[in-house]
Amino acid sequence: MIKKIALALALALAPCVSFAGNVKPVVFLADSEVAKHKKTITRVQDYLSGLTTIASEFIQVAPDGKLSSGKFFLERPGRMRWQYNPPTPILMVANGSDMVYYDYELEQISHIPMDSTLIGFLAQEKIRFDNNVGIISFKEGAGTIRIGVAQRSKPTDGQLVLELSDKPLLIRNMVVTDANGQVTTVSLNNANFGAKIDKNLFDFRDPRQRRIR
Fold first, then answer.
1. Within 13 Å of residue 135, how many CA atoms lie on the same side as its CB?
2. How many independent structural domains does the chain possess?
3. Looking at the predicted structure, is the pLDDT value of residue 169 above 90?
4. What is the pLDDT of residue 16?
5. Which of 99, 108, 145, 178 could form a disulfide bond with 112, CB atoms 3.0-4.6 angstroms apart?
6. How many helices (H) and strands (E) does the chain have?
7. Maximum CA pair distance of the chain?
8. Exposure string for 160-178, b = 16+ CB within 10 A, e = fewer
9. Does 171 map to a domain?
C-alpha cells in the first residue's frame, strides 16, 4: 500500500497521466483576489526562490493514515531526491529533465517528465505563481501561510498546498491531492536550509546493473 502511495505522490506532484477522478472542479483565484495578498505572495515567492538547498527528514501520511518516512534533498534548479526508509522500497531522484522512480522490490524504473509538473515548478531557478502554475487557494493567519497551486494547463492532474510558518518564513508541509482526490501530507522535519549537498545524491545509479557486476 505504501508503495502505491509513494507512486501516487510522485504522479500527483509530477503528473504524466490524466485520470478520471471524482474531484471538484479547480477554480483559480481571480486576479483581484490575488492582488489583495500580493505582498505576502511576493514574500513567499522570494523566500522559495532563495532556497538554494534543502536537506530534511520527512514523514508522509497516506490517505489511509499509514505513515512512512525518509530523507528529502533539494538543490535548485532541477535536482531532487526522495529517499524512503525501510520497509518502503522506493527511491525517487531528479537531476534535470526527468524524475526517476525506482521500486527496489519489483526492480522497476519509471521516468516522469519534470518540465510540465508541479514538482518541476518547485525545483525551478525562480518560483513564480503565474500563467503556468496558478494559485487556487490562499489562507493567512495565526503565524501560518497556506498557498494551494495547480497547473493551469491541466489543473485536475494534481494539486499542491504549501504550508509555511511565518516570521520568519519557513516551509513546513506539502499537502498533495492526486487526480482521484486522495490526499497525502508530507511534513519536513529537522530541515537544513542552504547546506552543501553531495551532488552524487542526484545521480540515479541503477541497482540492477551493480548487482549484475
1. 26
2. 1
3. yes
4. 32
5. 99
6. 5, 11
7. 60
8. bbbbbebeebebebbbbbb
9. yes
Please tell me the predicted confidence (pLDDT) of residue 155. Answer: 86
Residue with cell 518540465: 115
Q: What pLDDT score was predicted for residue 179?
A: 80
32/9: higher pLDDT: 32
Phi then psi for residue 88, to 5 deg, are -80, 115
In the three-class reduction of DSSP (H, G, I as helix; E, B as strand; rest coil), residue 49 is classed as helix
Quote the CA–CA distance of 135 and 29 in Å, as a whole number: 6
CATH assignment at residue 42: 2.50.20.10
User: Nearest 5 degrees, angle CA 158-CA 124-CA 171?
Assistant: 70
Please report whether residue 201 resides in a domain: no
In a domain, 195, yes or no: no
Using omega within 30 degrees of 0 as the cis cutoff, is the peptide bond preceding 168 cis? yes
What is the separation of C-alpha 148 from the centre of its chain, rounded to a whole number of angstroms?
Answer: 12
Strand ranges inside 6-107, DSSP E: 53-61, 67-75, 79-84, 90-95, 98-103
How far, in Å, CA of 26 to CA of 8, rounded? 19
Q: Which structural domain range is residue 144 located in? A: 2-13+23-188
User: Does 159 reside within a domain?
Assistant: yes
Eight-class DSSP state of 86: T
CA distance 175 to 13: 10
How many Å apart are CA 54 and CA 170, to the nearest integer?
11
Q: Give the range among 9-13, 68-72, 196-200 with minimum mean pLDDT.
A: 9-13
Four-CA torsion 134, 41, 170, 140, nearest 10 degrees: -100
